[in-house]
Structures are given as structure tokens and as C-alpha cells.
Known about the structure:
8-stranded mixed beta sheet; binds nicotinamide-adenine-dinucleotide; FAD/NAD(P)-binding domain; single chain
Amino acid sequence: MGHPYGCPTRRAGLVRHPYASHGDRRRVTVESYDVVVLGAGTGGLGAARAVAAAGRTVALVEPERPGGDCTWTGCVPSKTLLETARAARRARRAGPRGVEADVRADLPAALAHARRVREEVYEDESPEVLARQGVDLVTGRGRFTGPGQVEVGGRVLRGRRYVVATGARPRVPDVVGGVPHLTSETVWDLAEAPGHLLVLGGGPVGCELAQAFAALGVRVTLVQSGPRLLPRDEPAAGEVVAAVLRDDGVDLRLGARVVGVDPGPVLHLDDGARVAGTHLLVCTGRSPETAGLGLDAAGVAVGPDGRVLVDDRLRSRTNPHVWAVGDCASPLAYTHVADDQARAAAGGLLLSLTRRPSRAALPGRWRQDRVPWVTFTDPEVAHVGLTEAQAHARWGAQARVVTVPMSAVDRARCAGRTEGFLTLVAAPGPLGVAAAARVVGMTAVCPGAGELVAAGALAVAARTTVARLALTTAAYPTYGVALRVAAAAFVAPHGGVVARPAAP
Length: 504
Ligand SMILES: Cc1cc2nc3c(=O)[nH]c(=O)nc-3n(C[C@H](O)[C@H](O)[C@H](O)COP(=O)(O)OP(=O)(O)OC[C@H]3O[C@@H](n4cnc5c(N)ncnc54)[C@H](O)[C@@H]3O)c2cc1C
Ligand SMILES: NC(=O)c1ccc[n+]([C@@H]2O[C@H](COP(=O)([O-])OP(=O)(O)OC[C@H]3O[C@@H](n4cnc5c(N)ncnc54)[C@H](O)[C@@H]3O)[C@@H](O)[C@H]2O)c1
């Protein structure tokens, strides 16, 4: 990910250089820093830059080129490929508008383009840029060899504070065994278009890549063990995406457990079905990359799933000199989460380095309940806050919900994109006053939903009442009109749209 707020420049005179001393027995050179960061993905880059910008010395340890999952194997290549796929998909569907296009997709060329964009993004994260920003990049795999030291190759780094930001890796179920397969780490290097791609997993990676490959001319079968796609989102969102993928020609097998995988690849499903393809893409989740980091030696505890256990300020629960951010610690694996956490952790550890840290000056706690996320299918699925079921679990049927179908939104009609919806979820108003109910969640399924969710995220974070949201003006004709209509419908029925009690 490029630096989200531009490149901070090193402030001359404020950055102290690390000093080297000699260990007495092994005569190993020990390099001392204020802060040592492990991992130069979004989390590590954000933390290291913030520390350097504050005039502290920082070593950033990374075995690969900086950038991490987002730049090399995640957001950047996938969103670039999806943009290409979207162009092809929309051109093919323009017939009813009087535009006939003969669309021929070249998947290897589309992947080559995605790889070029990665290189462009990397220009903001290269060792030269980092050096200018005051970050010492140390190339190699870091490992704690004690509570206060990290070894990288033959080097020993000591920090007054540490940040663990080593991310996560694709999790491959045991059933796949030794059968050759692709993951989000390898799929970008395909030299030829697969004849028939079998996608295992219907989370965001599976849905995005299934749609991209299908739109670029590949036959795709997607097998999802759960009953619906995108299980973290509102069920109706998964249903829209399922309908759209089927319409794109994807053979969807929902609620299907894979009980065997043979080379070929061939998937054996629990209902007796046998699905043969030419390539297998495994998208069944990710596991934190914390084994082999020597966290035991540092007294840093991890949970049963391997995530570093941190408090709500991202500080290790068991070693107060260590912070952990991003996929290696967070229950939400998103670039914006890694970046937010990096800044919060840097704020906390910088304060702890000052002579008299004041608790009042501590940066805010990291709040999971306000984090938006977007799945970049076409249409996009965007969510923030609570789902209807989560609101029901908290307040029962006193929580209320309004859904505006996109078929009632002029912008969606103009675009011929009426398949989605916008749902707003509100907590009960004080004394049952409907207008005073506060917005606690939003899901939007429409083109550009990822832009629209910023307004929902603001409403949730600011604990906005539905009445206040209803009094805003939405520009016409935007998909955002659905948000204002939904808010108004909590107060009084609005063009056939009504509020209803939340259901489990
Ligand atoms: C296909 C795909 C698409 C995605 N799309 C999106 C999206 O659209 N939007 C979004 O918000 N999120 C998306 N994500 C998730 C996002 O990429 C991650 O949440 C984010 O990159 C995590 O950042 P991180 O810094 O925690 O970890 P990473 O970026 O994984 O960085 C960890 C770094 O640590 C290094 N490392 C590992 N071990 C060591 C060690 N021992 N010593 C030193 N360094 C080490 C690794 O080499 C790596 O560079 C996507 C993920 C995938 C797989
Ligand atoms: N647009 C985005 O922001 C974006 C895009 C891609 C990934 N990501 C991040 O990366 C993380 C990992 O994504 P993911 O989609 O790999 O994982 P995921 O855990 O979100 O989804 C994996 C899916 O695979 C299914 N599954 C698990 N085992 C299976 C099996 N044996 N057979 C069939 N299905 C099986 C699960 O039911 C689940 O729905 C996400 O949680 C998300 O945070 C974000």
C-alpha cells in the first residue's frame, strides 16, 4: 500500500543514529534502536514511519521487498484485476443501452498489468524511500532470542520497544494434502488462463477472484462449505453476490464440504458430487504468521489461533515492551485496520518512551466496532458496525432496521443496477422515541458501495441519530439517496419504505 498520507520527510537534527557496541562473550555486534519493527507490510511500514517521523531511531526488519500482502499478493493486484474484469463485464452487458462490444479477455495480459501496478505502488515503499524517511531497513527474517533482543541473520538488534507486524499466510485445509494448488500468494504469476478454475472458499478472496476470473473468460466453479457467501456480512448481501456470480456463469456449490481432493485437480464433495478442473485456488482463510518468531523467548503470549494477545491499545498482554498490529494480532484482517493499528501503537509506544508518560495523553483505544469493510465484487458489498442479527442479539426486537431496495433508487435504475440494497440498523431510541434512535450499522450492496460506506462509518462513529441523518441532503441521483431515505423511514414511512423490528 502506498503511504496513505504522503511521505513524511525526516526532520533533520531530530533523528538520532543507532550506536553499535560489542557483546562481550560472542563478540556479536549489537545494534541499538529506540524501536525494532518486525515485518514491512502495511502495519510495520505505518509503525516505522510514525516512529521515525517523531525523531526516534527505528529498524524495520523484512525478509522480502517491503509492502507486504497488500502491495504484492492482496489488495493491489486483486483490485487491479477486478477493475479490468469490471470493464469487461460492463462492456458485455451494454447491449440493452445500444452499445455492442466484442469483448475478448486476455487473462495473462490482465495479470501482467496487475503486476506492473504492484511495482508502481512499491515505489512509495522502496528501501530508498524508507531511508529518506529515517527508517533503517534490515533485510532478513527476524526472531526474538530473548525478551529484549531480535536476531536477523548474524545481526543482533536491541530495541527499547518492539512492534510485531508479521501478517498472515493463506490457510490450506488438510484435505488438500499434497495436491498442487494456487493461493492468493501465487495466483498472480499464472502464465496461462486456466481451463477450469476450482475455487475453494466463498469469503472475500474467493468471491472477488471467482468473479474476476469468470469475467476474464475462465470457467469457474466455487465451493463454499457454509450455506452462503460472505458469511461475515448481512445474509442478503451474500444472496445478491451468489445471484450475480451465477449470472456471470460461476458454478456455485454452497453448503458443500470437500471430503477428498485428487490430483487433476478433482474435488470430492460430501453429497457424492465429483468436480474436475484444471487448477485449484484455495481461499479458505488466513493464519497469523507468528510461529518461528521466538515469541516464547520474548514472553509474548499468543492465543489458540496463533494471534498475538494484545490489549485494546495493541500492547502485548504479557510483555509491556512489545506491541502487535495488523493480521498477526487483529481479528479483522484489512489494510486499513493494520494502518490504523500501526498509528495507534506508535502513539502508545512513543508516549511510553517519554520521561513522564501521562495516561491522559494516551492515544485512543482501537475500536473494532467502527471498522468498515468492502468486498470489491461488482456490485460492491460494504459494511460497517452491527448486522441486523448482531443488533437483535443486543437489543432484541427493539433494535430497528430499514432496507431500501436499489430498485427504488433512481441512480441504480439509470445504471441498470437494481440488484442490491442498503440496510440501516439502529439501536432503540431513548424512551422509545423513534427519531432519537442511533445508527449502529449499515450494509450497502451497489456499485460504489465502498465510497458510500464512509458516510455510514461516520454516522456509526459519531453515534448519529436517524433524525439527524435524515436531515442531511443527498445529491441526486446518487446511490447515497438510499442512505437518507433509509434514515427518514425510521421516523415515518417514506415512499413505501418502512422500519421494522430487528430479527435474529
Ligand atoms: C487476495 C487478498 C485481497 C485483499 N484485499 C483487501 C482489500 O481490498 N482491502 C483491505 O483492506 N484488505 C485486503 N486484504 C487484506 C490485507 O491485504 C491485509 O489485511 C494487510 O495487508 C495486512 O497487513 P499486515 O501489515 O498486518 O501484514 P502483511 O502485509 O502480511 O505484512 C507482514 C510482513 O511481515 C513479513 N514477515 C513475516 N515474518 C517475518 C519475520 N520473522 N521477520 C520479519 N518480517 C517478517 C512478511 O514478509 C510481510 O512482508 C486482502 C488480502 C488478500 C489475501
Ligand atoms: N476486499 C477486502 O477487504 C478483502 C479481500 C480479500 C481478503 N480480505 C481479507 O482477507 C481475509 C481472508 O479472506 P478469505 O476469503 O481467504 O477468508 P475468510 O475466512 O474470510 O473466508 C473463507 C471462506 O472459506 C470457507 N471455507 C473454509 N474451509 C473451507 C473448505 N474446506 N471448503 C470450502 N470452503 C471452506 C469458509 O466458510 C469461509 O467463508 C478476510 O477475512 C479479509 O479480512 C479482504
